[in-house]
Write the structure tokens for this entry.
Amino acid sequence: MKRSDIPKQGILQGVRVVVCAVSIAAPFAGELMAEMGADVIQIESPRNPDYAHGGSDPGWMGDAMRRNMRMVTLDVVKPKGKEAFLKLMKETDIFIESSRGGQWAGWGLTDEVLWKANPKLVIAHISGFGQTGEKDYVSRASYDPIAQAFSGIAYANGDNTMPYFPIAPDVLDFYTAFYTSNSCLAGYINALKTGKGESFDIAQYECGLRTIHQYLLQDLVQDEPEIRSLWIAAELSGAFGNYKCKEGSVFLLTVGVPVCKAVCELLGLPYGSEEFPAGDYIYPLALPKGQKIDAAMKEFCLAHTADEVEDILNKHKVPCSKVITYRDMLTNRQYKARNSIITYPSTRWEDPKNPGHPITIKAPCIPAKAKNHPVEIWRSGVDFGFDTKDVLAELGYSEEEIQKFFDKKICVSRPDACRQYKHI
């Protein structure tokens, strides 16, 4: 697909973003901007396809997490590949890469080299441990669970009675993507004002560290390390957490004076008495009242279905939600009212029930619903290198020159790269 064929929609139309990375954090940062109308190109190495495309079973990542993006293969290390890359940078507003610290500088593609091609370019370097600091850390490989362990997130989700564990699904990859897209857009706004680009050094572990905030202070300043996360309160407080129901389960929080009063009244407990004095904002499990209200809530939930519990608690203004499944989302009233699950045809997968036709993708919506510049998903993720020839043609290369890129393996098509899978 050529740039001229991209639908004119969204508040970022006209902005070009180039991502050179695999996996989740950097590509998803790009997709966030593609969903807002930007022309986002993901460059993949001919020798190392993104996990969204590589291997014999790439699954659904490409369709779900490369929406509205164009896919190019290019070896940026080879001289002709580097030439094409720098030519692309001249027409790019934001460039995002993800690798071990110092990788791009080692290839001779420093920030200064990129700024020589385009002084307004906004650059984001994503790595597990940052571009600076101790050399042995900077050079370390990292993925989401590793960064969660190093950032304190895993520590916040375990204690002496249970294993420390990372949060699914890959939350630190997504935290990093959000911080990256926010930083890049801030840099882009400044470049519009000043004509000067910016370079961001984004360490994935620090994106996780930033989200710990008050729990870290509670440990390091208040010296109370035993309570590390809000959700551990479910182990310390009555009528707080996940409760099994006659059918399904409900997550609820009894926190705050009005909620404590409402829960006591619902469960028939004497709010305002010596046992449950007015003004309580939580019921610690270490105290008899915490154990009593917890037992009463368990009994109440087991006597009703999750739908019934959710309905009753919400009428009493108790924060709660049924723990819904992915299938529940298709029939939930709020999901349907806001069109939270959207559908669009796959550009990669064939419908096994209707050969020759694309399967329909059911996927999450774009959360930020713009009033004045509405957006839509006009394309699912496409195959490995799908748009390479179109992008090279946009850069001014002739058909003969483009063929030489492929002959020299500076660019590749899917059959050259890895085993085919059932795609359109």
Q: What stands out?
A: DSSP finds 20 helices and eleven strands in the chain. The domain at 230-244+249-322 is CATH 3.30.1540.10 (formyl-coa transferase, domain 3). The mean pLDDT is 89. The first helix runs from residue 25 to 34.
